[in-house]
Amino acid sequence: MAASDYAEYQSLIEEMKEPATERGFEATPEGLIEYHSWQQDRVEIIESFLVERAEQLFGVVVLAVQNPLAWVLALIALALAAFKREQQHGWMLDRIENDAGETARKDKQLRSAFREHVQASNEEYIGQMDEVNDQQAQYWRDSFDVYSVRQLAELAKRGPHNAPDDAATDGGETAPAIAAIDADDIRDSWLAKAFSTNRLADPQEALTCIRAACVRMEAKYGLGHEYDATRDAVETLLEEVREKEASY
């Protein structure tokens, strides 16, 4: 073999020197040949061992499949593993199921309570409130056919049935109908029907009655989330009307 041919294997020879010397072989051509033979012997031994173990394992599997007792033992092992898993994590499933059931029950109770409160507020006569007397209640009935506390709060929230649908929106939600009324033109608005001739005395009296209904819906019936925006709009308009009339 020519010297140029040996040069092609120079890098391989250099790589083999270090592991060969670590294994006790000399860093000579003869030593490297012995090291290579030793490696081949190890590979053959390992391959033989793995093949033998694979054959043994395959034989065990075949015997286990054919043996009913092995199936019973396997099922018992699976059952024990499942039981252990249930002991460790079963409480989580129970907790989730119980929480879901409890949530459903609470939701049902809240819905039922909401319907009961709506019905009760829709039956309470507005004249039962301290802020509204029987004569004022009659005026509301004559003007807008309003009898109950909820009907009066709804009038401020949604406006009369024949009012134009021009309510503003705030954040995607419809603003209360009362919010569209300005203090400067309240006497020309749909609410003026309540304090015209032979009706309530003025806008302040009408707004005071409406405010009382909104407060009642929150304080007595727990429906503040339905009418808090309406109450805020009524209180703002009432303050503006008072300031305007005080300046005359």
Offer a concise description of the structure.
With 248 residues, the chain is mostly helical.
Q: Order of strands side by side in the largest beta sheet?
A: 1-2
Number of helices: 8
Q: Please bin the fraction of helical residues.
A: over 70%
Rg for CA atoms: 45 Å
- Global geometry: elongated
Q: Please give the alpha-carbon distance between the first and last residues.
A: 123 Å
Unreliable runs: 164-171
Describe this structure in words.
Strand 1 (169-170) and strand 2 form a beta hairpin. Mean pLDDT is 78; it is low at 164-171. With 248 residues, the protein is mainly alpha-helical. The chain is elongated. The chain starts with a helix and ends with a helix. A two-stranded antiparallel ribbon has the order 1-2. It has two domains: 13-86, no CATH class; 121-161 and 175-247, no CATH class. The chain contains eight helices and two strands, in the order H-H-H-H-H-H-E-E-H-H.
Topology:
Elements (H helix, E strand, L loop, with lengths): L2 H6 L1 H13 L6 H38 L1 H56 L10 H11 L4 H10 L10 E2 L2 E2 L28 H17 L4 H23 L2
Antiparallel strand pairs: 1-2
Spell out the key features of this protein:
single chain; 248 residues; mainly alpha; 2 domains; two-stranded antiparallel sheet
